[in-house]
Amino acid sequence: MLRFSPTAWAKLLHFRDRGQTEIGGFGISKPDDLLFVHDFLTVKQEVTVASVSFDDNAVADFFEDQVDAGRKPEQFGRIWLHIGVGAIGRQVALQLAAMGIPWLQLIDFDTVEESNLASQGYLEDDLSGPKVQATADLCQQINHQLEVLEINERFRRSMEIGNVIFCAVDKIDVRRLIWESVKDRSSFFCDGRMSAEVLRVLTACDTARGGKQDGRDFNQDTHPGVR
Fold it and tell me: For the chain, is the Cβ count within 10 Å smaller at the N or the C terminus?
């Protein structure tokens, strides 16, 4: 279970009540208990009532300071965000649980239909229930120590995200919107796509642009099989 120290919780409440905008930050945990947040730190950022944009240099300085303080990345950046639990997303979530990750966030507004049983691996007992709940239940059967946050709604720009994201939604325009929202706030972004019997593995890492990917991979004409 994710827990907070009185200091970390007081900081979160302070920032929540300080103004009308969103605010982002990093939870700091102990090496022997990664689910116990003992401090909350923020960096320079631009905020609105619905979004947060971290300053790249501030984030880089924060990571360097944390490493200099003797902390490992999993103590200040180990948060997983998972969007979409259909044919691809559900299987990715189950594999992450089997790998032993400590915390997983599932986002999907959909419910389980009969057509999902064969194509996405859901059970008859899951019918009519939220996909995030059914997936979370099975993930926790695989990994009893896994903490899962279920969000049974569509992805929104204002949602808190971590540094590792698996995107597995249906529509290409939604994928583009998610990418544009998280590209400057994540260190790893996986965009999984399926089209009947077609399988392609595409990677993008432009070192000249710091490993950043542009939006050309989210054109409908480029991927006609994705709907």
Answer: N
